[in-house]
Design goal:
Elements lengths: L4 E7 L2 E9 L39 E4 L5 E4 L1 H5 L8 E9 L8 E9 L4 H14 L1 E9 L2 E12 L2 E9 L19 H13 L12 H15 L15 H19 L16 H10 L3 H7 L5 H26 L1
Parallel strand pairs: 1-5
Antiparallel strand pairs: 1-2, 2-6, 3-4, 5-7, 6-9, 7-8, 8-9
Length: about 325
């Protein structure tokens, strides 16, 4: 894991230098919106709802919409005046009983790891929270905004770890606008409900549950891949045909290099000699000069190679004879 924040926990006169790690990650199934015909990704333009024109990123500002639909545009100067903080302190405000915190308030969870110099005070805070069965209500600045959070101890396979959980603000918790009308409940019904609870009682084990939907999607996708039902697009980054993609990339590189030197990159010049031998012999005969043919002809042309080989052999034998005469 990679630390996303560094700071210290302060309670009283004690400071515990810590690192913050995200404790959760989403494995939710997500789909891309694509063109059904060829699998191309669907792109969206930034269109102004008033004039219908596309808007560049440089012309996009932040706006606050009021309850009556009016739009207040905020400039960078306006945003610079808002209260922000870069404090690296997790300040403990109070220790409260664990059962006083409504789980509905919890938002995102982070693991706290102590720096080497803070290992002992970290262990003391952890032990104090466990023994008192309390949570520490703290204030912390994340992404330049101060938020309320709690510190609690969580048992893991690696040992007991202090977890920081950010909390929603009270006005972010919705109040249900409905009421449940309860009629007469008979004693026999209540007794039967208690029996059902006892029958289904047990300890919670998260490993007993699985995401059936995600598993089914994975199985479906794997079956389509094995059946060849895959759309190859120019922007594909994950494919099962790495060799084909590599050859295509190399071919494009060769074409680009030839084009830079002014050479012919047509399909006829790139055909394989094994399949087009007759056509290549005819082309070799039409070459105006041997020099030019040697320079421009691909290494695949059998006739050009034989001529070059004969010339090279003649030159080498002539050189050997000359060297022998000089030696004598």
């Amino acid at each position: 894991m990679r630390a996303i924040w560094k700071g210290s926990v302060s309670f009283g006169l004690v400071n515990v230098p810590v690192k913050l790690y995200s404790a959760t990650e989403s494995h939710d199934v997500s789909f891309r919106q694509v063109h059904a015909k060829d699998g191309g990704r669907i792109r969206y333009q930034r269109i102004c709802s008033l004039d219908g024109e596309e808007v560049a990123y440089a012309d996009i500002a932040k706006g606050y919409e009021t309850e009556d639909g009016e739009m207040v545009i905020l400039t960078d100067d306006d945003l610079a005046e808002l209260p922000v903080t870069s404090s690296r302190e997790i300040a403990v405000e109070k220790f409260v009983p664990s059962d006083q915190i409504d789980p509905l308030l919890f938002e995102k969870s982070y693991y706290l790891e102590p720096e080497k110099s803070g290992a002992k005070p970290y262990a003391l805070l952890r032990q104090a929270l466990q023994d008192a069965d309390r949570m520490a209500v703290v204030t912390v600045a994340l992404r330049q905004r101060t938020t309320v959070a709690v510190l609690r101890v969580r048992e893991t396979e690696a040992g007991d770890v202090i977890v920081l959980q950010t909390m929603m603000w009270p006005d972010e918790i919705r109040v249900p606008d409905f009421s449940v009308e309860v009629g007469e409940v008979k004693d026999a019904e209540v007794k039967m409900a208690h029996m059902l609870v006892e029958t289904l009682s047990g300890d919670f084990d998260a490993s007993e549950f699985s995401d059936d939907y995600a598993d089914a999607v994975e199985t479906l996708v794997r079956a389509k891949i094995e059946g060849g039902e895959v759309e190859r697009t120019p922007t594909s980054t994950k494919t099962s045909g790495e060799v084909v993609d590599l050859l295509a990339a190399l071919q494009r590189s060769v074409d680009a290099a030839k084009k830079g030197r002014g050479e012919d990159t047509s399909e006829a010049a790139e055909e394989k000699p094994a399949k087009k031998a007759p056509a290549r012999k005819t082309t070799a005969k039409k070459a105006p000069e041997k020099k030019t043919a040697t320079k421009k002809a691909p290494a695949k042309k059998a006739p050009a190679k034989k001529s070059a080989a004969k010339k090279t052999t003649t030159k080498r034998s002539t050189s050997k004879k000359t060297a022998a005469k000089k030696a004598s």
